[in-house]
């Protein structure tokens, strides 16, 4: 099949493709055609001319090692020549086992169980499902709500949208159909014990109905790039323990070195009950995320039955999806960056 020219690509795009966060039709802003990527640079075609552009956004925060990294390319080639796809129900394979062990080794110590997911949003969905099933297994089905800080962003599917900022966030359009969660005021940049005390007082009013507190640790990313003192994470851990509420860290954007530590939780050595990782996990090669939880959460859920999640498009059915992240994590932890 002959390659399409940039003009042909643009014509088909205009006729049939709907891009993220965009309109379609005559008023739509036409996207730039990308024809190559290497290292930190993208090769684009604009007005018929080839230009090199710095991928300063790391392709939506995923390509942390640059494009075309030789270690990741080699991992792809090796895995595709061995086994490209098997179902994960009732089967397992080496790439999944290696990646699970690696994630357990590098994340906070209490997190011992790994559930692989399709994307960051799905990872948050699974984290919330874990929290809800955990409390149902403990005979407390009324604990169904979530609490979070204002100003956050957790994804574009419906449960994550319900804990994005309810006023200034991109999902306020759906406010009347989303689950009603509990929102604390915006977390300050500098540490203020008074803020934590007020947060605890608000949480205490709802503790009987709260399944979990969900936050982006250290940096609230897509919701506004706001930073906060890591000591708030210590306070959250203590508050959740005192009131019988699970703590979920959404490290989709902050994980794998983006805050100066491998994970934002590492700044103060806090272990959440559940943690979401993604984006940089595969180095930008494929969509894959993971939801990790403590042994207590996993065993408590399992004591009452299986975790009720298993999409047919299972991420680990493609062993390559697991081979890449393992190689990507090794690049990140050994300094093999480009």
TrEMBL record:
SUPFAM superfamilies: PLP-dependent transferases. Its EC number is 2.6.1.62. The keyword Repeat does not apply. It catalyses: (8S)-8-amino-7-oxononanoate + S-adenosyl-L-methionine = S-adenosyl-4-methylsulfanyl-2-oxobutanoate + (7R,8S)-7,8-diammoniononanoate. It comes from Mycobacterium xenopi 4042. Keywords: Aminotransferase, Biotin biosynthesis, Pyridoxal phosphate, S-adenosyl-L-methionine, Transferase. This is adenosylmethionine--8-amino-7-oxononanoate transaminase. GO terms for molecular function: adenosylmethionine-8-amino-7-oxononanoate transaminase activity; pyridoxal phosphate binding. It is an enzyme of class 2 (transferase). Belongs to the class-III pyridoxal-phosphate-dependent aminotransferase family. BioA subfamily. Pfam families: Aminotran_3 (PF00202).
């Amino acid at each position: 099949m002959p390659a399409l020219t940039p003009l042909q690509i643009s014509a088909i795009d205009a006729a049939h493709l709907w891009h993220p966060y965009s309109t379609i039709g005559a008023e739509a802003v036409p996207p730039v055609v990308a024809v190559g990527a290497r290292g930190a640079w993208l090769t684009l075609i604009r007005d018929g001319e080839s230009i090199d552009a710095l991928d300063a956004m790391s392709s939506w925060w995923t390509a942390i090692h640059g494009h075309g990294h030789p270690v990741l390319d080699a991992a792809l080639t090796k895995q595709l020549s061995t086994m490209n796809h098997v179902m994960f129900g009732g089967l397992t394979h080496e790439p999944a086992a290696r990646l699970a062990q690696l994630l357990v080794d590098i994340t906070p110590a209490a997190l011992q169980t790994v559930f692989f997911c399709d994307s960051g949003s799905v990872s948050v969905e699974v984290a919330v499902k874990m929290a809800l099933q955990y409390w149902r297994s403990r005979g407390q089905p009324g604990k169904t709500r979530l609490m979070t800080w204002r100003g956050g962003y957790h994804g574009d599917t419906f449960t994550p949208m319900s804990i994005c900022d309810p006023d200034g966030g991109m999902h306020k359009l759906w406010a009347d159909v989303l689950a009603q969660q509990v929102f604390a005021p915006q977390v300050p940049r500098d540490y203020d014990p008074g803020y934590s005390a007020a947060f605890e007082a608000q949480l205490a009013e709802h503790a009987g109905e709260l399944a979990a507190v969900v936050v982006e640790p250290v940096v609230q990313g897509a919701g506004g790039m706001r930073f906060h003192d890591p000591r708030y994470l210590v306070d959250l851990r203590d508050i959740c323990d005192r009131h019988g509420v699970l703590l979920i860290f959404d490290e989709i954007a902050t994980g794998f070195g983006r805050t100066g530590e491998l994970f934002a939780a590492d700044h103060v050595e806090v272990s959440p009950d559940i943690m979401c990782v993604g984006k940089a996990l595969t180095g930008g090669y494929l969509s894959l995320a993971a939801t990790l939880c403590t042994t207590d959460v996993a065993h408590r859920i399992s004591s009452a039955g299986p975790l009720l999640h298993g999409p047919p498009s299972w991420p680990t059915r493609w062993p390559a999806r697991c081979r890449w992240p393992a190689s990507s994590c090794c690049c990140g932890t050994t300094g093999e960056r480009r």
